[in-house]
Amino acid sequence: MDVLVAGAHGAVGQHATRLLAEHDDHTVYGMVRKAAYDDDIVALGATPVRGDVTDRASLDDALDETEADALLFAAGSSGADVWGVDRDGANNCVDACEGVDVERFVMLSAMNADAPEESPEELREYLRAKAEADAYLRESDLTYTITRPGALTDEDGTGRIRTGADLDRTDATIPRADVAATLVAALPLSSTYGLTFELLSGETPIEVALRSPLAE
Length: 216
Known about the structure:
Helix content is 37%, strand content 24%. By secondary structure, it is an alpha/beta fold. Helix 1 (11-21) crosses helix 6 and helix 4 (82-99) packs parallel to helix 5.
């Protein structure tokens, strides 16, 4: 696949970009807003492309330039603009993909996006924004996968996860490296098509877990 990573300079996005670049069967483009980030994307093994998820025209240009056939959405505002980036930015990416017949879309969402009221007050607006973005993607014509990880950590990845529709929240964490590896592994797997699933650290190798991601 030719894959465009939205949010390639973010914490999860950098992991995903590097992993994609290590695959011989993927060509990866890292979309960034600033030229200052270009060298970092090149160091990850990818081709930098200018684009901003809040600017639909720039997304159209990025997709045209890359001729991508898949988009991995790992962008986020870190709470600074949840409606403009986490919701509308994702929706813009969906619209841009539909506009140029990019069929595959893998979304980084968040656990509890379907139940923000069960989360701490400071996270609820973010989770509502993510829920609306997830719903928009599900209503599109794209072949989507939505992953909803728990709290992200900077620990080393283990390559082992647990997935399901409603996971036990005990120790509800996962390294960013494992989230990125899951996003990348899901791209070609038809067993993840049209699914929304939660994601935490576990004991099952990533590709094995993704054969049936809703089976806890």
